[in-house]
Design goal:
The protein is α/β, with parallel strands linked by helices. It contains seven helices and five strands, in the order ααβαβαβααββα. Helix 4 links the parallel strand 2 and strand 3.
Length: 215
């Protein structure tokens, strides 16, 4: 979800306006994915490093997160979508954490569709957090155990798409991305649309994924 600020600059708008446009695009893109039988989607809203931005900007984005959850929760329930925020949300105000907890609890039993929002998320944090859980539980540090206690569990992405033109993962799902197809687009996030989703999926279907094996 990269490019909100640059999109705003190009249109002579504030960064806040750019984040508003980007936030409003999330659920539309999720629905486009569902229509194309993509059952699990994770949106990278804020990285651990993004939290070093101004307090005004990070607080504004957290409010957008809160508003978006409240707005779309009825639809998530109607469509039986499991919702989860991945990342360290301990710093968020209690009212926003309560909103997240309620939405996660209300949708926790759904399995067909999954919508994850990565907020104050970092792939390095995710791995360290999983290891600390294993240590507390006195479990062996193995591939299977570490994968199980990541924020996504052992549900790894087949494909990672980054908008905005930069060609790097920026600390996103470093463990889970071991065999993900990586797609980098020049389009800025507020301009990303359902046609882009369709084109990406069509290209993905043409890829023969061998996972290191020889046919």
């Amino acid at each position: 979800m990269d490019g909100n600020g640059r999109w705003a600059d190009r249109h002579g708008k504030t960064r806040q306006f750019g984040h508003e446009q980007g936030s409003s695009n999330v659920y539309d893109i999720f629905l486009s994915c569902i229509e194309l039988d993509i059952n699990t989607v994770t949106f990278f809203a804020m990285s651990s490093e993004n939290m070093n931005r101004s307090k005004e900007e990070t607080e504004f984005i957290s409010i957008l997160l809160d508003d978006s959850i409240k707005k779309h929760l009825p639809d998530l329930l109607n469509n039986q979508v499991k919702f989860k925020v991945i990342g360290d949300i301990s710093h968020l105000p209690k009212n926003i954490r309560d909103t997240i907890d309620y939405a996660e609890s209300a949708t926790s039993k759904f399995t067909k569709y999954k919508l994850n929002i990565a907020y104050n998320y970092g792939g390095q944090w995710d791995v360290v957090n999983s290891i600390n859980i294993l240590l507390r539980k006195k479990l062996a540090i193995s591939y299977e155990n570490l994968s199980k206690y990541l924020s996504t569990g052992d549900d790894f992405p087949d494909m990672i798409v980054r908008t905005g033109g930069y060609k790097r993962l920026s600390n996103f799902m470093l463990w889970q991305a071991a065999y993900s197809e990586l797609i980098f687009l020049d389009v800025l996030w507020p301009e990303f649309c359902s046609d882009d989703v369709s084109n990406i999926l069509n290209n993905y279907k043409s890829i023969k994924r061998k996972f290191g094996k020889v046919e």
